[in-house]
Specification:
Strand content: 25-35%
Bound molecules: copper (II) ion
Structural class: alpha+beta
Number of helices: 8
Largest sheet: 5 strands, mixed
Oligomer: single chain
CATH architecture of the largest domain: 3-Layer(aba) Sandwich
Distance between the termini: 70 Å
CATH class of the largest domain: Alpha Beta
Shape: elongated
Strand order of the largest sheet: 10-17-14-11-12
Number of domains: 2
């Protein structure tokens, strides 16, 4: 008998609830708890479905939704997927499957200059390889839920205009530099001779920093010696949570981009580098590895800056 293919043995693991030695295992998390509560109390039982993406009026004119829940996987088709996407795929398609719902495969393709058909095909292939698809079959009616945001961009544009005119959103006219300054200050580059101590941080391929929790005093200058003990490239970027998440987004789009900023150090396997930083403001400063998939796998830490 030929061995089962990798993809078929992986999709078998997706069957829920899993069974080990006759004992049913039931995993749970806060998303499942919210969904189960809504299904039990019928919170959205009266919801209508217009047959495709659209505004409230469009759906109100539709049929009672045969899907118990709707989730979505919305990648930008500007690169190949990584392990963080695999988690999102299993989460969104897995919840839809487990609760009698549908997961929409929706390409967030609103930046056509950076997007290629090759990435669209590769993403669809990856979702199927993980054992999922975007078809639904309710009451004998087969439907595909493959959507492209560019097909209803005008609707989203009108929605944005509405939010602005209703006072719920605004257009930020600041320059990129002003935004950076106003967004939250996490300190400034320090001078090594002023450092009150040296903290060594090790990075490993299990996507962890050691230590990952560091305490400093407000005003203190710290010299961080960062060592890459792994076999792949890692980095350490210091910043506010928002700034790190924005950089993460840029790294997804341009994985080879390397920052040359004093708050960051990128290291080849076996190398070490340093960051000298003065923590001027009390609160939390975050750090993370923005190599694709690393932050998602948990490669992050925090510097707690204690008030003077
Ligand atoms: Cu890393």
């Amino acid at each position: 008998m030929p061995p089962p293919s990798l993809s078929s043995s992986i999709s078998r693991h997706h069957q829920a609830p899993a069974e080990i030695e006759g004992q049913a295992l039931r995993t749970s998390n806060f998303l499942r708890q919210v969904i189960e509560k809504d299904l039990a109390t019928g919170t959205y039982a009266q919801r209508q479905w217009g047959g495709g993406p659209g505004d409230a009026a469009f759906h109100d004119a539709g049929q009672p939704d045969p899907a118990k829940i709707r989730t979505r996987f919305p990648p930008e088709p500007n690169g190949y997927l990584h392990v963080g996407h695999a988690k999102s795929i299993c989460l969104n398609f897995g919840l839809a499957r487990d609760y009698g719902g549908v997961c929409h495969m929706r390409f967030d393709d609103t930046n056509p200059e950076k997007e290629e058909k090759e990435y669209v095909d590769s993403i669809l292939d990856a979702v199927q390889w993980l054992g999922f698809n975007w078809e639904s079959n309710f009451n004998g009616k087969q439907e595909s839920h493959l959507y492209y945001a560019s097909n209803y961009f005008d609707f989203m544009y009108r929605a944005a205009e509405y939010l602005i005119t209703a006072g719920h959103a605004y257009v930020d006219e600041q320059t990129a530099e002003d935004m950076r300054i106003n967004r939250g200050d996490f300190g400034k580059p320090g001078v090594a001779s002023k450092a009150s101590r040296t903290v060594t941080i090790e990075m490993t391929d299990n996507m962890r920093y050691t230590p990952a929790d560091i305490q400093v005093k407000q005003g203190e200058t710290v010299r961080f010696i960062v060592k890459n003990k792994g076999q792949v490239k890692h980095e350490l970027s210091l910043g506010t949570q928002q700034e790190l998440l924005e950089h993460l987004e840029q790294m997804r789009k341009f994985p080879d981009m390397e920052h040359d900023e004093p708050s960051k150090v990128t290291l080849a396997p076996g190398k070490q580098g340093e960051i000298v930083w003065q923590f001027t403001k009390a609160g939390a400063v975050n750090f993370a590895c923005l190599m694709p998939g690393h932050y998602e796998a948990g490669m992050k830490g925090q510097v707690k800056v204690n008030k003077k």
